[in-house]
Amino acid sequence: MVQSNILADDYLAIEGLVVDMKNGGIGFRNHSAPPRTPYGSTWSEDLLFIEPDTRCVDTNLTLDFSLPRYTSEGLSTSETVHLVLTDRGGFANLDLTYPNYSFTNTQQNPQLWDRAYKGAWANNVWSMFFMNVTNPRNVSDPDSRAFTYLNSHVGKQFPLMSDNSSIEPTLTPDLNSLVASKSFAGYLNGLDVELKPFNSTITNTTIPGQKPLYENPFNISSTNFSFVGDMCAGKNSADIANMDNFAAACGMVYGAPSRTDKNYSLVLEPGSNWSVPMYSCIMTAKATIKRVTFQFNGSDDLSALKVTEIKNKVYPNEESKPLWGVERTDKKLADVRPLWGLISSPEQGNISLHTIRQESLYLPGHSKLSSLHSGGGYQNLPGIEFYSGAMNSVFELDFPSLGVPDYTGRMNIAMYRRWQELSRSAETTAKILNLIWTDLSSNAVVGTRGLHGAIMQGSTSSSLEKRDIGESSPSPNTPRVKYMQRRVRYRWAYAVPALIVLVLTAVIAFATIIFVLMGRAGVTRLRQYLNKTSQGRILTTILYGRKGEISAPAPSMQTRSSTRRWVANVGKNPVTVAEGANDTLVIDGPEAVQAQPLLTVQKGPAALHEHER
Question: Is the pTM of this model over 0.85?
Fold first, then answer.
C-alpha cells in the first residue's frame, strides 16, 4: 500500500480521488482547478461515490480475561489468563424464533440489519449447542424439539481456557488490538479436543493427558459455523450474477479490549481485568452521487485543493434521480462479475441490462473471490473488483494479505485508542469497518475524469456509443466558480446603539445652536450659572452674606475678576457641615458669627412654621 490515512478524520483530496475519512467512501475525480487568483476560489461538483454500508449486531457475549498477577502465572504480562465467555443475554435472552429476511427487491430493501442479526443468532445458537447450553432438534426423531433446556443465565461465565492453559482456543483475544474475522465462533476452536498424554524419554518427563474443555455432545464442527457467513450474506458463489445479488461480506468483529475496572484505561496493570465485545457484521458497497464543495487557495500543488463539504445530492423528483444499469447475465457469481454504471435512458441497452432508478445502487458481485493485496499476477477490471476485494480484506485483519497495513491497532497506540472508543457499541463498530474499507480502496483505484476531461456530446455523437469519442471540449455542465475577494463588511444591526446616540447628540447640538442664536446661551452665561450653583459659593453665602458675591450681579466682563475676589475673600475658608439638634444640618466657619441651619427635616406643622420664618 502507498499511503494510509486511517486516522485523518477529514475530507481528503488525493491523486484521482476524494476520500471521506469521516464517514467512509471514495469519490472519483481527476483533480483540476480554476485559474489561480490572489484570494482563491470555491465551487461544487456532483461526483460518483462508492461508499461502504455496514451494519453490526451485538451478540451480547463478551470475552473476559485477566492479566497474570505474578510471573509464575504467565510467561509475560501480555499473556492472558482466566479467559471466559460471559453471557450478557446472548444465551439467556435469546429469541428462539428462527430469523428470516426477504431475498427479493434487495436494491430497495437490502435488510442489512436483519442479515447481521441472523449471523449473530446462528453464532450464538451453534455455540450453545457446542457447549451443551441447550439442545438442537434431533432430525431422526420427528417428535423432538430444540431448546428444551437452558443451562445459562445473564452473567454466567463459560471457561475457554484450562487452569494450566494447556487447552485454549485457536482464537484468543489480543490485548492491544481489534480483530475482524470471517470465521464465526472462533473462540471455540480446539476446545473439544482431548489432550493426549506425552512421555519424553530424552528429558524423562511425562505430561498427563487432559479431557477436552467441552465434550461437544451434538458433534458441532467448524463446518456448521462456516455456513453462518453465507446465511448472513444471503448468497454464495453458486448464485446467479445479477442486480439482486449484491456483494456482501459477513464476519465477527472482536472489539479492542477495555479494562472493566478503570474506565477504559490503557495501563497494562498486572492482575487487571479486561473485556472484549463481539459483534456480527455485514458490509456492502453502494454507488451514489454526492455534492462535493472544493476550495482552491491558488498555489500550484494538490495541497492547495481542499474539500470543505460532502453531502448527499438532493433530487427534486423521481425522474431526476440517476438511472443505474447492471449487466444481465445467467452466469454464476463464481464465474463472472457483472458490469454496472449510469445510463442515459431505460432504452439504452435494455436487452442486456437490468435498470433501476434510485439514489444509489448496491454493487453486484461476491466478496469471497479475492482480497486486495500489493502483489501482481491478476487482472483488475476497474470498478467491479476492488470494492468486493476490500470487503474481504476487512474481515482478514487477523491474517492480512500481502501489503495490507496493520489496522488492528497493535502497532499504533492512537489507532488502538480510537478503536477502543468506537467498539463500545454496534453502531460505532460499523464505522471502524467503513473507515478501513475506505483506506484500502483509496490505494486501489483512481478517477480519470475531471473538469478538464469532460466531453460534450454533440449531434455527431451517438448516445449509444460504447466509448466516448470526439474532441475534448468544455462541458456545458462545468460548475460555476466563485472567486474570493477581500472586502470589509459591517453588520448594521450592531450599529443601532451608535445610531441612537448619534441622533440624540445631533438633537442636543441643534438645540444648543438655537439657544446660542437666541441669546439664551453662551460661555459667559454658562459661567454665571456655574458660579450661582456652585456648592462652595452657596455655603459661603449662607455664612458670610453678600461677602460671598453670589447674589450680587456681575457684568459679563467681570466674571473672572468676580471669581478671583470670591477666592480672595472667602474661597479659602474651611466650612464645616454637621448634624444639629432635631435632625438638622448646620454649617459653621471660622469668621461666622454663629452656626447657621442648612436643612431641617422635622415633620409636621412645626417644620412648616420654621420654613415660613
Answer: no
